[in-house]
Write a structure and sequence with these properties.
- The complex is a heterodimer of chains A (about 230) and B (about 220).
- The N and C termini of chain A lie far apart (about 80 Å).
- Chain A is built from 6 helices and 10 strands; from the N terminus they run ααββαββββαββββαα.
- The longest helix of chain A has about 45 residues.
- Chain A has one domain.
- Chain B has one domain.
- In chain B, helix 1 packs parallel to helix 8, helix 4 crosses helix 7 and helix 8 packs across helix 10.
- In chain B, about 40% of the residues are buried.
- In chain B, about 60% of the residues lie in helices and about 0% in strands.
- Classes of the chains: A alpha+beta (about 230), B mainly alpha (about 220).
- Chains A and B meet through helix 1 of A and helix 4, helix 5 and helix 8 of B.
Chain lengths: ~230, ~220
């Protein structure tokens, strides 16, 4: 390799860095609309899957409009807050605020059998990064009608298993209240008692993610206690 | 014009560039490079396959780019130039996956970004692309990424089959009815150490078949 002057090296670096920057900005700009659309559609698929409506990329938007009747934001006192779009509320940002100022999004869905389900978004911490999910409650505000979870960077095959149907289906018919007291649902290591209405099996090799999910459920749902009390049927 | 005989595109020498890394110069089992991601993404086959394809794209294109500018890259900053080229390719691959294969890109999560740190790529740029023409460099990239991907796919095949009882998500073990005989999935297979053991077994198997790979002391 020949020897190059410092001047050449300097110019070479500048040209290289600028052309790479232009190339990457262009890629990001061109792909951004598609990526944002993916994120939005995925959120709709997630919300729908929490009420056990299976949707694909293609029909998610139509099905969302069909089932989801209302979306609004409340505070911990159960009062509605006007002028905030529940769909775009970032829970991660909300959790940094003092409890009484947090926006708590609620989505309500009317199912084919006429039941109204209340869908509550949750966000917590897994092992490597954020985990989140949606839990749908029946009108008694106690029984779980469906749950869906997802994660940013949990290990495939281990913590990442929280977004499998097998794991999520364990939550069906579990209840979050015991004799009028909020107890949430525990994620148990080493086999949960199937008949227990407050526990589900954890994931082998994914204990920290399982525990994070348990904490997410408990801390996320307890904020809605007032709303549950006001709307229980 | 000079009458130079042109080397055919797929001459024996060039084919060797592609086939050697699949077997006796395999980056994982012989050169023991890129082990870290091989452990991480081999629990299921689908992420492993996408990872293999991503590495193939990154390595082949980076090899061509570096090879094309090999005469103008100043030696003193060549490592940085290589890193910039690799990083650019990885970011583009990551963005494309996010736009067109959103599901898989979520499964691979950080590992796509970590292709940058995959020793195979830096190794090939430094050892091959800087000294060879673009076409051989392209083949060398495909071959080495192919050798890496091959091992990834073998390991993930075994881990998914015995760890989860599925292949590409299809419940093979259940369909075969082996659970009825009292068989259970081996939870150990989905834990990271098992990837190392499976890679070890492949290395053992390969060396027992090809004695020339055994290091003499």
């Amino acid at each position: 390799m020949k020897d190059f002057s410092n001047r050449y090296i300097f110019i070479f670096s500048v040209v290289m860095v600028v052309s790479v920057a232009v190339l990457l900005s262009l890629t990001a700009l061109l792909l951004q609309p598609r990526q944002e659309k993916n994120v939005e559609v995925e959120k709709k698929i997630n919300i729908l899957s929490s009420i056990n409506v299976i949707s694909t990329k293609i029909d998610a938007v139509t099905l969302y409009d069909k089932y989801i009747r209302e979306s609004f934001v409340i505070n911990t006192d159960g009062q509605h807050i006007e002028g905030v779009d529940a769909f775009t509320v970032s829970l991660r940002a909300e959790q940094k605020k003092p409890l009484e100022q947090q926006y708590l999004p609620v989505f309500t869905a009317v199912m084919d059998n006429g039941d109204t389900l209340h869908i509550l978004p949750l966000e917590g911490k897994g092992l490597w990064g954020p985990i989140w999910g949606y839990v749908a409650l029946k009108p008694d505000m106690n029984t779980i009608a469906g749950a869906t979870f997802d994660h940013k960077g949990e290990t495939p095959g281990l913590g990442a298993e929280i977004n499998t149907t097998e794991f999520e289906n364990q939550f069906l018919e579990k209840s979050i209240y015991e004799g009028g007291r909020f107890v949430s649902v525990a994620v148990v290591k080493g086999g949960a008692d199937r008949s227990d209405r407050h526990e589900v099996d954890g994931i082998s090799g994914g204990t920290i993610t399982s525990k994070g999910l348990e904490a997410m459920l408990r801390e996320g749902l307890v904020k809605y206690e007032k709303y549950f009390a006001d709307n229980r049927k | 014009m000079e009458n130079v005989e042109k080397e055919p595109l797929l001459s024996a020498k060039n084919i060797k560039l592609m086939s050697n890394p699949l077997g006796q110069e395999n980056p994982i089992t012989v050169q023991v490079l890129g082990i870290c991601s091989a452990l991480a993404v081999t629990v299921k086959m689908k992420p492993a396959i996408v990872m293999a394809i991503s590495v193939m794209v990154v390595l082949a294109v980076s090899n061509v780019v570096i090879s094309a500018m090999r005469k103008s890259v100043p030696g003193r900053i060549r490592i940085i130039v290589q890193l910039v080229v690799i990083a650019t390719m990885v970011i583009i691959v990551d963005q494309v996956l996010k736009a067109f294969a959103f599901e898989v890109s979520k499964q691979l999560s950080v590992f796509v970004g970590l292709i940058i740190t995959n020793c195979i790529i830096m190794g090939r740029l430094e050892a091959f692309a800087l000294a060879n023409k673009p076409w051989p460099a392209f083949l060398d990239g495909l071959g080495n990424a192919g050798g890496y991907g091959l091992i990834l796919i073998i390991v993930s095949f075994l881990r998914e089959l015995f760890g989860s009882g599925t292949l590409l998500g299809f419940p093979v073990m259940e369909k075969l009815g082996v659970y009825k005989t009292g068989y259970e999935d081996n939870g150990m297979m989905i834990l990271p150490p098992m990837a190392l053991i499976v890679v070890g077994l492949i290395i053992w198997f390969q060396r027992s078949r090809n004695k020339s790979l055994i290091e003499t002391r």
